[in-house]
Amino acid sequence: MKNKGNLNRPIEVSPREGYRVWLRYADGVAGEVDLSDLAGRGVFQAWETRACFEAVRVAADGGIAWGDEIELCPDALYTRLTGKSVEDLAGRQEGNHVGQWLVENMPRGINLELPDRSEPDREIPFLGGD
Fold first, then answer.
1. What distance in Å separates the CA atoms of residue 9 and residue 35, rounded to the nearest whole number?
2. What are the residue boundaries of the structural domains of the chain, listed by start?
3. Is-contact 82 76, C-beta < 8 A?
4. Which of 17-31, 87-101, 114-128 has the lowest mean pLDDT?
5. Which DSSP string corresponds to 65-109?
6. Residues near 89 by Cβ (< 8 Å), separated by ≥ 6?
7. What is the pTM of this model?
8. May I ask the CATH class of domain 10-103?
């Protein structure tokens, strides 16, 4: 996950009460994001140990990380923080050719938000060879 030259690069993160984190981005945007919808599910069960959640950091590649097992996309967190869409972000970043290509070529109606976790995860069959 390279974020080189991206205005949305997080430069600071700190834990808050519950499952909230405070973030500051290189473009000056700062605020809290509630991650309680992820807590207790899959790898995010690790956050039930408060010390794990409080060990949040900005990873070398720009992601928001906890240890070596959990990393969240900084752009996804930026959209949660600002309420901006992926299209807004791609159009705002001058020289972001990949983001612009995604906006122009993404089939309409695809939801890029986090999945609804109100239903249990279902098993996905392996479709590869033996």
1. 19
2. 10-103
3. no
4. 114-128
5. EETTTEEE-HHHHHHHHH---HHHHHHHSTT-HHHHHHHHHSPTT
6. 8, 75, 78, 79, 99
7. 0.65
8. alpha beta
